[in-house]
């Protein structure tokens, strides 16, 4: 059955939800296709059950890289820690190795400020009070102080946190300001239609604009939507994959589709602190950040984890062991030894965008990462600083092996695979996120961010979406 809409948006995370609210507000008939299910506070489970986690998360694993994303109406916002930082202005001035500015010239200090303000208001972003900072982050701040570095409270999109410690499985108390509490209901109130469990398979140009072919994952049926404009917001892994699958139905795509994958310098380290009771799984997931190393290309943040992360540490540290990692005496030892005294430390920094998303001969998504000198330098420095901080209160730094010995990365902040640029030689979309040579086809999500940000990216993705939505609405009126 063929349906007609002004706009079809593919994906409902920070890019898709914002565009959905704005386009429907401007009275454009809007359809949002989302492959994941709808969840709310009554459906979220405070559990570490892998079956549940597999339903709401989508994991991608490739050569030397693992990526975790959300797979639900509201995308990553249901699972994120809600740390909401503006991108420091020096980021917009970054250049590549040939001296070319990575961001289009309209992006500079201040150019996103009014859009940041809109998103911060909508998501109730505020800096935490010290009394709201969880114990583990207090310990992180104490360790920074002992090592001689400043550390401050994070800005988060959380209101009256219940401190239950389950931010990463969905907030059962609606305190975390996920997109299902703001932009998504706004879009629906304005008349946008959201089809959950529907996966876009192809985007094709036609005489009216575009045709989107999608599969209803429940019934298995294929459907088509005809629309004047398409906004692809499927995230930094799936958006380039969809573009590559649709290549023969579109005009002249840039060679950059799928390239320049940044892990946003993510590293997940842990401090083993025998003298502290970190209560690592209690309270909001994150509470503190130190910018003391910004000139070296990274920030460090305290990070909470569910106890299951002890198994992850075990799995990463003893990767080549033959026995299973999730039970047995070894697991017991890790839980006992590390559970209570474990402090998560997140590194976010300016890596070399060394990854790629591509398709194999059967159109399956593949990823690869090859650690460049630039990435290695930043990671090595960050590990040295984190070690200094942890050791300043008698601790030991763990989980450095994957990055330093094996050149692997794990990220929840993939960026850059359909990057924006001034022209098609350097990127996939223009400064308004319109795909070069394909009018009214837009990509709006983490994939268009042309450089690592060095801070958590959701606020910037949403601010870019606010800005671009204004442009798309204006284009409809011409
Ligand atoms: C555990 C965790 C913690 C995080 N914490 C933070 C944090 O504290 N602060 C921060 O700034 N960021 C955080 N992030 C990252 C943040 O969630 C992402 O940067 C952000 O969600 C990316 O937005 P997006 O619009 O690019 O894509 P997403 O939010 O990933 O949305 C893409 C959506 O598209 C859907 N989709 C994909 N393919 C298709 C298709 N073919 N058809 C239909 N639908 C499709 C997906 O199911 C998904 O819902 C965290 C992420 C995780 C996983």
Structural notes for this entry:
- It is a single chain.
- The protein is of the alpha/beta class and 478 residues long.
- The chain has two domains: 1-80 and 85-122 and 178-262 and 414-478, FAD/NAD(P)-binding domain, CATH 3.50.50.60; 128-166 and 266-349 and 372-406, Cholesterol Oxidase, domain 2 (2-Layer Sandwich), CATH 3.30.410.
- Helix content is 26%, strand content 22%.
- It has eleven helices and 20 strands.
- The strands form five sheets. Strands 1, 2, 8, 9, 10, 11 and 20 form a seven-stranded mixed beta sheet that branches. A six-stranded antiparallel beta sheet has the order 6-13-14-15-12-18, covered by helices on one side.
- A hairpin with a 7-residue loop joins strand 13 (288-290) and strand 14 (298-303).
- Helix 1 (14-25) packs parallel to helix 5 (183-189) and helix 3 crosses helix 11 (458-477).
- The protein starts with a strand and ends with a helix.
- The mean pLDDT is 93.
- Flavin-adenine dinucleotide is lined by residues 10-16, 33-36, 68-72, 75-77, 79-83, 168, 199-200, 233-236, 238, 242, 412-413, 445-446, 456-458, 461.
Rg, rounded, reads: 22 Å
CATH topology of the largest domain: FAD/NAD(P)-binding domain
The helix count comes to 11
Residue windows where pLDDT falls under 50 for at least 5 positions: none
- CATH class descriptor name of the largest domain: Alpha Beta
Bound molecules: flavin-adenine dinucleotide
* Beta-strand percentage range: 15-25%
- Main sheet record: 7 strands, mixed
Net shape? globular
Number of domains: 2
Question: Mean pLDDT across all residues, rounded?
Answer: 93
Number of strands: 20
CATH architecture label name of the largest domain: 3-Layer(bba) Sandwich
Computed structural class:
alpha/beta
CATH superfamily of the largest domain: FAD/NAD(P)-binding domain
Kindly, what is the distance between the CA atoms of the first and last residues, rounded to a whole number of angstroms? 30 Å
* Helix-residue proportion: 25-40%
